[in-house]
């Protein structure tokens, strides 16, 4: 059985990807960061954010 490839998304959650790792899960778009929550946690101190646990 042949399957068609998934269509290109024009809007919604599946369009926005993390700039660092490419995942579409948990992407933070505020302030045009476009990083997922995992990458933000790793890179935040270098960007000037304070990480609170």
Fold and architecture overview:
This protein has 1 helix and 2 strands, in the order ββα. It has 53 residues and is an alpha+beta fold. Strands 1-2 form a two-stranded antiparallel ribbon. The protein is elongated, with a radius of gyration of 15 Å. It starts with 26 loop residues before the first strand and ends in a 6-residue tail after the last helix. The model has no long low-confidence stretch (mean pLDDT 90).
- Count of spatially separate domains: 1
**Do you know the CATH architecture?**
Irregular
Number of strands: 2
Distance between the termini: 50 Å
Question: What class do helices, strands and sheet pairing give?
Answer: alpha+beta
**CATH top level?**
Few Secondary Structures
What is the CATH fold-level name? Answer: 30s Ribosomal Protein S14, Chain N
- State the low-pLDDT regions, or none: none
What is Rg? 15 Å
Task: Give the topology.
Elements lengths: L26 E2 L6 E2 H11 L6
Antiparallel strand pairs: 1-2
A few lines on this structure:
The chain has 53 residues and is an alpha+beta fold. The chain is built from one helix and two strands, in the order ββα.
